[in-house]
Amino acid sequence: ISTAGGVDRYAVTQREASLEILPGVRTPMWTYEGVFPGPTIEARRGRPVTVTHHNELPVPTVVHLHGGHTTAASDGYPTDLVLPEGWHDATHHQHEGHAMGAMHDPRAVVTKLTRDYTFPMIQRPTLLWYHDHRMDFTAPAIWRGLAGLHIIRDDAEEALGLPTGSRELPLVITDRAFDGEGGLSYPSLDPDLRSRPGVREPYLAGVLGDVILVNGAAWPVHEADAARYRLRVLNASNARHYELEAITDDGRRLDLVQIGADQGLLAVPVTHVTLPIAPAERYDLIVDLSGVPVGGRVRLRNRLGSGRTREVMAFHVVRKAPDPSRIPPVLSHDLPTWDRSDAVRVRDFSFRAGRMHGGHGWLIGGLPFDPARTDVTTRLGDVEIWRFIADVHHPVHLHLVGFRVLSRGGEPPGPHDAGLKDTVSLRPGESVEIIIRFDGYRGRFLFHCHNAEHEDMGMMANLEIV
Ligand code: C2O
Ligand code: CU
Ligand code: CU
């Protein structure tokens, strides 16, 4: 990192590395800087960050800052490729007839050998993540390791007295499957890497693993103080949903006090007993371990899992220690207040399975993703209501902007829908309304399902802000 000229500069090399994910075994991965998750970028609100990505992987990549309020040029459009050295014919590769290739528009393909991504960081402090976003290949690239955290902080949040330092823990939760040699098992869809033809159908629902990783370690145990912890949870899994609970040795559930959502602090804390978290969602939680005796454990479990996918991680309380932290009754005052009367239009989108290119795919409004088609055009500054309806579970994500959930299943939003979000979990058969203001930048952005396999299989659309 360098901080010259008021810009924080990072350089990230994307490269292959063999990492010890399971004890005593080496797992070949695709990484940012040789680590998984990638290096955490620490940003200050209002201070731009430039990240120079250099691609030493064998395939083109794209970097997207999820939740970033970012110009279109740095948003990681799926055809804005960072080519590896010696990769001469990107458009040829783009047109290669892999099973689910959407119609590519060669004019949309922008290629570079290295790329500077610039993030203005004019947005509420929160936990963002960066990940690969290459057209049709996002899911296998994330699975292989291309994901990392990007945290935005500011003075106001730091003045709240929340747990900090070693008591603030980002938790990147993922699931992975391993083969007998320790390699990741994924049916790669990349023509250069695909080992079996016709692998698409079994993965229609999304790829799941049977090993739960937190920050790249399988079922870790964290040595903790008997004190409050701030857990900044990201579900970075391709397709797995979790419902988290924190359970003590004597079977008590600890409160999960939510202080923030995808796009930063809530107005006031919301207490949960269990917490559903869909792919790409983030929850900022306070868990109080002060009542746990030294030597005791608190297990973070997934109520939706079975067998070993029921366990996520554990906290082993090893010492009593003073705790100066607090949870203020009011957390923030700057949440948007747009309401139905501010909306200038209402749009409807269905998220459903369907036929595409002769096979099965996932469609928005009956159509698979096509980079050459503009699906939605809106004006900078407009407030809109978007209504979603889902067939199966679809976590729906909008680039660039945060939104509020207005209703769920025709009822007021649930307790987990509080605050400003960028990803909303649609449950099977459910309708959800959100309200958004298209602030910030003109240009072409995306919205899509964040089940990463659904996204690769067509469930993505273009949003043009004019
Ligand atoms: Cu995290 Cu377009 O995605
Ligand atoms: Cu995003
Ligand atoms: Cu989906």
UniProtKB/TrEMBL annotation:
Q: Which GO terms describe its molecular function?
A: copper ion binding; oxidoreductase activity
SUPFAM superfamilies, alphabetized:
Cupredoxins
Q: Which PROSITE patterns match?
A: MULTICOPPER_OXIDASE2 (PS00080), TAT (PS51318)
Q: Its catalytic activity?
A: 4 Cu(+) + O2 + 4 H(+) = 4 Cu(2+) + 2 H2O
Q: Which InterPro entries match?
A: Cu-oxidase-like_N, Cu-oxidase_C, Cu-oxidase_fam, Cu_oxidase_Cu_BS, Cupredoxin, TAT_signal
The enzyme's main class, written as a single word, is oxidoreductase
Q: Which Pfam families match?
A: Cu-oxidase_2 (PF07731), Cu-oxidase_3 (PF07732)
* Superkingdom: Bacteria
Q: Does the keyword Oxidoreductase apply?
A: yes
Record keywords: Metal-binding, Oxidoreductase
Cytoplasm keyword on record: no
Q: How does it assemble?
A: Monomer.
Q: What is this protein called in UniProt?
A: Multicopper oxidase CueO
User: From which source organism is this entry?
Assistant: Kribbella albertanoniae
